[in-house]
Design brief:
4 helices, 93 residues, two-stranded antiparallel ribbon, mainly alpha
Length: 93
């Protein structure tokens, strides 16, 4: 991920006086954290997914679960499929 320029439209939607750090994001209550993303320190509101998006995600998770069960039946370790995860991406140091 590359850094956003200071005049990025993401930062100009609702100008922030200070950027949000990873530590500040992690300290937010769950109901707030699940409604936003932090992109290069800027708060970005996450709209609710569309019904088509939710259907696609459910179908993909169902397929993964089916294959995980098959793999466990063949002696592989227990596999778990989660379709709602937090993800942190950062540029290599």
């Amino acid at each position: 991920m590359t850094a956003l320029p200071g005049d990025s439209w993401l930062c100009s939607i609702r100008p922030q006086t200070e950027l949000v750090t990873a530590e500040e994001y992690e300290a937010l209550p769950e109901e707030i954290a699940r409604a936003i993303e932090i992109v290069d320190g800027c708060v970005v509101y996450c709209a609710a997914p569309t019904p088509d998006h939710q259907t696609a995600g459910r179908r993909l998770a169902n397929m993964l679960e089916r294959h995980a069960r098959d793999a466990m039946g063949e002696g592989h370790e227990r596999l778990t499929v989660n379709n709602d995860v937090d993800l942190r991406l950062s540029a290599p140091s």
